[in-house]
Design brief:
Number of domains of chain A: 2
CATH architecture of one domain in chain C: 3-Layer(aba) Sandwich
Chains: A alpha/beta (293), B alpha/beta (675), C alpha/beta (189)
Largest interface: B-C, 48 and 52 residues
Strand content of chain C: 5-15%
Oligomer: heterotrimer
Structural class of chain C: alpha/beta
Number of strands of chain A: 6
Order of helices and strands of chain A: HEEEHEHEEHHHHHH
CATH topology of one domain in chain C: Rossmann fold
Radius of gyration of chain A: 20 Å
Distance between the termini of chain C: 5 Å
Order of helices and strands of chain C: HEHEHEHEHHH
Strand content of chain A: 5-15%
Helix content of chain C: 40-55%
CATH class of one domain in chain C: Alpha Beta
Number of helices of chain A: 9
Number of strands of chain C: 4
CATH superfamily of one domain in chain C: Lumazine/riboflavin synthase
Helix content of chain A: 25-40%
C-alpha cells in the first residue's frame, strides 16, 4: 500500500495527473476515493474489500469526473479488461489516463467490513474463482506482489450455471421470470457497469419503445434479456451489477452464461488486449450454424 | 394525421378466387388512419392507376397501400403513379396478398383473414413512412483504368471513345501485358502483336486517354463519382518529353545480361531498356536495381560508376537524380484490369504455395512454361521464332506438353481450372509442328476444355491435321537423363505406363492473379477470394462490378480468362462506367442509414460491420469550434441499405430509412394478437 | 391471470383439443427468402396460413428486439430467414445475423424459452419449396408446443384483463379457427 501511496503522491506532485481515483477505508468497508492533493494519497488502500470497478468513472458521459482533469486510476485485472473495452469502442484514448495496476488475489463477497480480512472459501466473491488476470498488463505501473489464486468457493458460478442448464426448460423459465420479476428498473446495474456508456440507452428510446419501462414482468424480461445480449463478448465479469442490484437478481449467472456462449461458439475470451476484436461485430465463414435450417 | 388510401386488387381471378377482396377493403376501411379503401379488378392497369391518382387528389391521401402482388412485381409502377399525382413515391407501399396469400392457401376464410392482417400491417408501416428524396451525388466524369493489358486497353478505349477522359496506368514500362508476349492467338492463329499493337498505339494517341506507364496506384480516397486517386509515378530516370526513342542509350549500356521479364527469362536485356521493340510508349526506363551506377550509389561510392547512357543520349533526356513523383487524379469510376501471372512451379515459391519439383522446372533448363514457349515461337523472341531448346540451342524433335500443372489440384496448387491451357496447348502443339515438320508433339491431358466459338474445332486440328498425340493421363516425374528429358506418365485409356524421351517439355501452369493484387484490393476497398482473384458483385448478374460502388473489374484478374472474353468483359465494364457517367448527378435510392448524432457515442462498431466502408468517424464541435466528441457518419453515396449497422448499434442511434425501427415496430404491433 | 409457472405439458393438454392455430411472425430478407416465398406463390405451392411475413432488406437488419416484441404481442412462434452464407446481397449481413442469433438462441434457451418456438433458416430466392417446408415445420412445432401463454402471462394485470374481456366479446375475428369459445384466445383467467 505504501508503494501505491508513494506513486500517487508523486504523480499528483509532478502534475502528471490531476486526480487519483482509488479506494479508501471507511467504517463500512472500502469505498472509492478521489485524491486531488498529494497529501491525500495517504488515505489510499488496496485490500480484499476493494471490489469496486473504478473504470466506471472513465465513462465519457460522466462530465463531473472529466472536469477534474487527467485521471490516474487504480485498477485490478478485471478492471483492466474494462479499460480495454473502452479503448476498443473508441470511448477512451490511452494517453488520456494513467493506469495504476495492482496485483489482486480476489475480493470479498461481503465487503462492508471495517477492516480487511483474509479470503476463505466462505467469504470470497464467487466470481473471482478461476481468474486468469491477477496481474493486469494494460497498465503504466504495476504494484504489489503477485497473489496466489483465490480460494475456491463451495459452489462456483460455473457450477450454478451448469445446474441451471441441467434443469428442464419450464423450471428455468419459472426461475428467471421470478428473478426478473423482482426487478424495479432502477438501472443501477447499468449505471455501475463500466461498459454501459451510451448517451441514450435503448431502454430509454421511446420512438419506438422496444423495452417497456414500467417494472412489470414482461418489460423486465425484455430489459434483462437486452442487457444480457449487450454483454456478449464485452462483459469483464467484475460482478458490480449483481453487487449493486437492490433486489438481489443473480446477474453474474447470466453474465457467466454469456461468456460460456461466446467461448464455445466463437472461441472468444474478453481480454486486456484492445486489438482483440469483440465477437459480435465480426464473423468467420465457418461460424457454427447448427440451429439454422 | 395519416390519410392512407388502400386499394385491394383482384388481379383478375388470381387474388379474388381465394381472397374476398371486397371484405378486405371493407375491413380496412375503418382502420384508424385509413381515409379511403376500395377494391378493383386490375390495379396495375391504366384505369387502376388512374383510380389511385384520382383518390390521392380527391381524398387528400398522405399515403397509399396497394394490396396486390409482390412489391418486386409492381412497386415501381405504383410509386411512379403516386409521383405523377403529386404524392412522394416513398409514401407508397405494397401489401403482398397474392404470392404470399392467395396463391399459397386454399381456405377462403383463412386467406381473407390473412390478407386483412397483411394489409393492416403495411398500413401501419406507411403511417411511419417519410417523404424521402433520391440522394443526389455529383459525378466526376473521368475514369481510372488500372492495368494496361488487353482488358485495360479495351476498357480505356471504350470509355474514351464514349467522350470521357480516362487515366490509364500500367506498372511496366510499356502497355500490352501478356498478350504482347504471345506469338499467335487461338482459335485463329493470327499474330498477337499484329492485332494488339494498333490498339496500343490508339490508346497512347487517343486525345481522351492520359497514359502513365512505370506507375502504380498509391492511395484511393472517396467514393463512387468522387474518388481521389494518388498515383506513384516511379522514377524512370528518362524524361518522357525529351526522349525520342532512338535506342542509343540501350546500345551504350554495359549491363547487357539482365534476364528479360518480357522474354520470360529466356533472353537478356540491358539496365536501361524498353521491354520489347514495339513498346508503347517507346521510351526506356532505367532499372535502378540492376544498373551499375545505382549499385555504386547504394554502396556509397564517391563517384558514379557509370554514365554511358547519359553520355550517349543526344537529347539529354537522362537524369539519374529523379525521384518517384505523386500525381493526384479526381475520377468518378475505377476499372481494375491487372491481369494474371503464371504459377511458378519451381523450387522457390511464394509463401503458402508449393512447387512441382518433381517436374524439374527451374532445374532442368528444357522444362519450360507456356509463356516461355510463346517467346520461343515468336518471330521477335530470343530464337527469332525457331523452336530451339534452352540448354543447347538444338531443335527438339520430341516435345511433351503437360496440361493442368498446378490447376485442378486440391492437394497442392490451385483447386480451379485455369480455362485457357487446353486451348493454348493445342496451339503450341500446332505451332511446334508447323515449324518442326518431323517433330513429335505429345500432350498429357485430363480433359479437353474447348468450349468457345471455334474452340473444339481448333483443338481437333492439332490432333487431326498436325498429328499431335494426345494421351489421357497425368505425368508423375520429369528429369534429365543424358541428353534427353525423361517424362513418366500414364495412359488411362489403354491403362499402360508411358515413358517419353523428350527433348523439351512445356508445362501448362496455373493462371494466378498478379502479385500485389491483395494490397491493391485493400487500397480500393474491394474484396478478393482465397486465390487472390477480385470478387465480382454477383456471379451471374453483376460480373463486372465489385461490391464497392464505382469500382469495376475486367479480365483475368477476376478469374482465368482468354482474350475474347477479356475484351468482352472490358467493354462491359466500359459500358457500366459510361452508364455511371450518363448524368451529371447520380441518383440513389434513399434507403440509406442515418446516424442520430445526439445519441451516437462514436464507438464505431457500425463501421466494423459495414461491408462497404460507408461509415466513418466524424468529430463534433461546439459552436466555437472546440472538438467535444466524435460520432459515426454514414456516407449516403456509399451506403447500400442493409441495416446491419442498426441491428448492431447498442443504443439504436442509426436508422435505416425505409426500414426504420418505427416502421418495423408498427408492423409487429399491427400483428398484435391481443386488442 | 395464468400462473407463470404453468408447465408446457399443461399447455399442450389445452392445445391437444386440436383447435389451436399458432400465430407466427416471420422476419425475412428481401433478396432471398422474401423472393423465395414469392416463388412459392408463383409455383402455387400450398402451405399453412399461420405465418405473417415482415420484410427487411437483410437478415443483418433483424434485431432480437423484434422477436421479443413479437412474443410480447402474442406471437406463439417466430421465423427468421435469409440468404445462405456467401450469398448475402450485401456481402456479409447474414454472417453478422448468424452470430447475433446464435447468442440470442442460446440465451433464450437459458432463460427457459423453448427453442422450437424460434425457427432460423437460410432460404434462397430459388427455394420456394424449402420455404414451404420451413413454414409447415414451424407451424407443426409450435402447434405441438401450444400457445405461448407463459409469455402472455407476464403482462401487467390490467392489460391481461382487458385482453380477456375483448377476447370474450368475440374479437376473435382475426383467428383462423372456427369460433368455438375458448379456441384461439390466450389463456386468461
Amino acid at each position: 500500500m505504501n508503494e501505491l501511496r508513494e506513486l500517487a503522491r508523486k504523480l499528483l506532485a509532478d502534475g502528471e495527473v490531476r486526480v487519483i481515483i482509488g479506494w479508501e477505508s471507511a467504517r463500512r468497508g472500502a469505498r472509492p476515493m478521489f485524491v486531488t492533493e498529494p497529501d491525500g494519497a495517504d488515505g489510499l488502500i488496496f485490500d480484499t474489500r476493494c471490489v469496486h470497478n473504478l473504470v466506471t468513472y472513465l465513462n465519457p458521459r460522466r462530465d463531473h469526473v472529466a472536469e477534474l482533469g487527467k485521471i490516474g486510476l487504480v485498477i485490478k485485472g478485471c478492471d483492466a479488461k474494462a479499460v480495454a473495452g473502452l479503448l476498443r469502442e473508441a470511448q477512451l484514448t490511452r494517453d488520456d489516463v494513467v493506469l495504476i495496476g495492482v496485483c489482486c488475489g480476489g475480493v470479498l463477497e461481503e465487503n462492508e467490513l471495517p477492516e480487511a480480512v483474509a479470503l476463505t472459501p466462505e467469504n470470497v466473491a464467487p466470481r473471482c474463482h478461476g481468474c486468469d488476470n491477477r496481474e493486469p498488463t494494460l497498465v503504466d505501473h504495476l504494484l504489489g506482489e503477485p497473489q496466489p489464486e483465490p480460494p475456491r468457493p463451495a459452489v462456483t458460478i460455473e457450477e450454478r450455471v451448469a445446474a441451471l442448464d441441467a434443469q428442464p426448460l419450464e423450471e428455468r423459465w419459472a426461475f428467471w421470470t421470478e428473478q426478473f420479476g423482482k426487478c424495479v428498473r432502477c438501472y443501477a446495474c447499468r449505471q455501475v457497469c463500466p461498459l454501459c456508456v451510451c448517451e441514450r440507452c435503448v431502454a430509454e428510446k421511446t420512438q419506438p419503445q422496444w423495452i417497456e419501462s414500467s417494472p412489470h414482468a414482461r418489460g423486465n424480461l425484455s430489459w434483462n434479456i437486452t442487457r444480457a445480449l449487450h454483454l456478449a463478448g464485452r462483459c469483464v465479469d467484475c460482478g458490480e451489477c449483481e453487487r449493486f442490484c437492490p433486489v438481489g437478481i443473480p446477474l453474474t449467472l447470466v453474465n457467466r452464461k454469456l461468456q460460456e456462449i461466446v467461448a464455445e461458439r466463437f472461441d472468444y475470451k474478453v481480454s486486456e488486449d484492445p486489438e482483440n476484436q469483440a465477437p459480435i461485430g465480426g464473423y468467420r465463414l465457418d461460424d457454427e450454424q447448427e440451429f439454422i435450417k | 394525421m395519416s390519410r392512407i388510401g388502400v386499394f385491394v386488387c383482384h388481379c383478375g381471378e388470381n387474388i379474388a378466387r381465394t381472397v374476398d377482396t371486397e371484405a378486405v377493403a371493407e375491413a380496412i376501411k375503418d382502420h384508424p388512419g385509413v381515409a379511403f379503401a376500395t377494391d378493383y379488378k386490375y390495379m396495375c392497369s391504366d384505369p387502376g392507376q388512374t383510380m389511385v391518382k384520382e383518390a390521392i387528389a380527391e381524398h387528400g391521401l398522405t399515403g397509399v397501400v396497394i394490396a396486390a402482388c409482390s412489391p418486386h412485381m409492381h412497386e415501381k409502377t405504383f410509386r411512379r403513379a403516386c409521383a405523377q399525382a403529386g404524392l412522394n413515391q416513398y409514401m407508397c407501399e405494397m401489401a403482398n396478398i397474392r404470392e404470399h396469400c392467395s396463391w399459397i392457401h386454399e381456405d377462403r376464410a383463412d386467406a381473407t383473414a390473412k390478407a386483412i392482417d397483411i394489409a393492416r400491417t403495411i398500413v401501419e408501416k406507411v403511417k411511419h413512412n417519410k417523404p424521402l428524396e433520391s440522394i443526389r451525388i455529383p459525378v466526376t466524369k473521368r475514369a481510372l483504368v488500372i492495368g494496361g493489358g488487353i482488358a485495360g486497353i479495351q476498357a480505356a478505349l471504350d470509355i474514351a471513345d464514349g467522350g470521357h477522359q480516362v487515366v490509364l496506368i500500367e506498372k511496366e514500362a510499356s502497355i500490352g501485358g501478356h498478350m504482347s508476349q504471345l506469338s499467335e492467338t487461338f482459335p485463329t492463329l493470327d499474330c498477337s502483336q499484329c492485332i494488339l499493337t494498333p490498339r496500343m498505339v490508339e490508346a497512347y494517341q487517343h486525345p481522351n486517354i492520359t497514359l502513365h506507364t512505370w506507375s502504380e496506384v498509391e492511395k484511393v480516397d472517396g467514393y463512387i463519382g468522387n474518388f481521389e486517386v494518388t498515383i506513384r509515378k516511379k522514377a524512370r530516370s528518362v524524361n518522357e518529353d525529351l526522349c525520342n526513342g532512338c535506342g542509343d542509350c540501350q546500345a551504350a549500356c554495359p549491363a547487357k545480361r539482365i534476364p528479360s521479364e518480357f522474354e520470360a527469362g529466356l533472353g537478356k536485356r540491358t539496365a536501361i531498356y524498353v521491354p520489347f521493340p514495339q513498346a508503347v510508349p517507346n521510351i526506356p526506363a532505367l532499372d535502378r536495381q540492376n544498373c551499375t551506377l545505382f549499385k555504386g550509389r547504394r554502396k556509397g561510392l564517391a563517384k558514379d560508376a557509370c554514365g554511358k547512357c547519359k553520355e550517349a543520349c543526344l537529347k539529354g533526356a537522362i537524369d539519374y537524380d529523379t525521384e518517384d513523383t505523386f500525381i493526384k487524379e479526381d475520377v468518378g469510376a475505377i476499372v481494375v484490369a491487372t491481369g494474371f501471372q503464371l504459377y511458378n512451379i519451381g523450387r522457390e515459391q511464394p509463401e503458402g504455395l508449393k512447387g512441382y519439383g518433381e517436374y524439374g522446372y527451374g532445374e532442368v533448363p528444357d522444362v519450360i512454361d507456356g509463356l516461355q514457349f510463346e517467346r520461343l515461337a515468336s518471330a521477335s523472341g530470343p530464337t527469332a521464332g525457331a523452336i530451339l531448346r534452352p540448354s543447347d540451342g538444338k531443335e527438339p524433335k520430341t516435345v511433351v506438353f503437360v496440361h493442368c500443372v498446378g490447376s485442378r489440384d486440391p492437394e497442392k496448387g490451385m483447386k480451379y481450372c485455369s480455362k485457357i491451357c487446353c486451348m493454348y496447348n493445342a496451339k503450341h502443339a500446332m505451332l511446334y509442328k508447323h515449324k518442326v515438320h518431323d517433330g513429335r508433339a505429345v500432350a498429357f491431358y485430363m480433359d479437353i476444355r474447348a468450349a468457345g466459338k471455334g474452340y473444339d474445332e481448333f483443338s481437333r486440328r492439332a490432333i487431326e491435321e498436325d498429328q499431335a498425340e494426345y494421351i489421357r493421363g497425368r505425368v508423375s516425374k520429369i528429369y534429365r537423363d543424358g541428353d534427353k528429358v525423361k517424362v513418366w506418365g500414364y495412359d488411362t485409356l489403354s491403362q499402360e505406363q508411358v515413358v517419353i524421351d523428350a527433348d523439351m517439355v512445356v508445362l501448362a501452369t496455373a493462371i494466378r492473379p498478379q502479385p500485389g493484387v491483395e494490397q491493391l484490393a485493400q487500397t480500393l476497398s474491394i474484396s478478393y477470394d482465397e486465390n487472390g482473384f477480385i470478387n465480382e458483385a454477383h456471379p451471374k448478374l453483376r460480373p463486372v462490378e465489385t461490391n464497392t460502388a464505382g469500382v469495376f473489374v475486367a479480365g483475368a484478374c477476376q478469374a482465368p480468362r482468354d482474350i475474347p472474353d477479356s475484351v468482352a468483359m472490358a467493354s462491359a465494364a466500359g459500358a457500366k462506367v459510361m452508364s455511371l457517367f450518363s448524368a451529371d448527378e447520380l441518383g440513389r435510392e434513399p434507403a440509406v442509414a442515418v446516424v442520430n448524432e445526439n445519441t451516437c457515442i462514436g464507438c464505431m462498431n457500425c463501421a466494423n460491420v459495414c461491408a462497404y466502408g460507408a461509415i466513418e468517424q466524424r468529430e463534433i464541435c461546439t459552436v466555437d469550434g472546440q472538438v467535444c466528441g466524435h460520432v459515426a457518419y454514414v456516407n449516403p453515396g456509399v451506403c447500400q441499405g442493409c441495416g446491419t449497422c442498426q441491428a448492431l448499434c447498442l443504443s439504436k442511434s442509426v436508422e435505416l430509412q425505409t426500414f426504420t425501427d418505427e416502421q418495423v415496430y408498427s408492423e409487429i404491433n399491427a400483428l398484435c394478437f391481443w386488442e | 391471470m395464468s400462473d407463470p409457472t404453468e408447465t408446457q405439458s399443461a399447455q399442450n393438454a389445452g392445445a391437444a383439443a386440436g383447435d389451436f392455430e399458432p400465430r407466427i411472425t416471420a422476419f425475412v430478407c428481401n433478396w432471398c427468402t422474401y423472393t423465395g416465398a414469392d416463388l412459392a406463390g408463383t409455383s402455387r405451392i400450398n402451405m399453412a396460413s399461420n405465418v405473417r411475413i415482415i420484410r427487411l432488406p437483410c437478415t443483418g437488419r433483424i434485431d432480437p428486439l423484434f422477436i421479443i416484441k413479437s412474443f410480447e404481442r402474442g406471437a406463439d412462434g417466430v421465423i427468421v430467414s435469409g440468404c445462405h452464407p456467401a450469398d448475402c446481397h450485401y456481402t456479409s449481413g447474414n454472417y453478422h445475423a448468424r452470430r447475433r442469433f446464435a447468442v440470442f438462441h442460446d440465451l433464450m434457451e437459458f432463460i427457459g424459452v423453448d427453442p422450437r418456438r424460434m425457427t432460423f433458416s437460410w432460404v434462397s430466392a430459388s427455394e420456394g419449396a424449402k420455404w414451404r417446408d420451413v413454414v409447415d415445420e414451424a407451424v407443426t412445432n409450435v402447434r405441438e408446443l401450444g400457445p405461448f401463454d407463459a409469455y402472455r402471462a407476464l403482462a401487467p394485470e390490467d392489460e391481461s384483463a382487458a385482453a380477456a374481456a375483448s377476447a370474450a366479446a368475440g374479437a376473435a375475428a382475426r383467428c383462423a379457427a372456427p369460433a368455438s369459445s375458448g379456441a384461439a384466445e390466450p389463456d386468461a383467467s
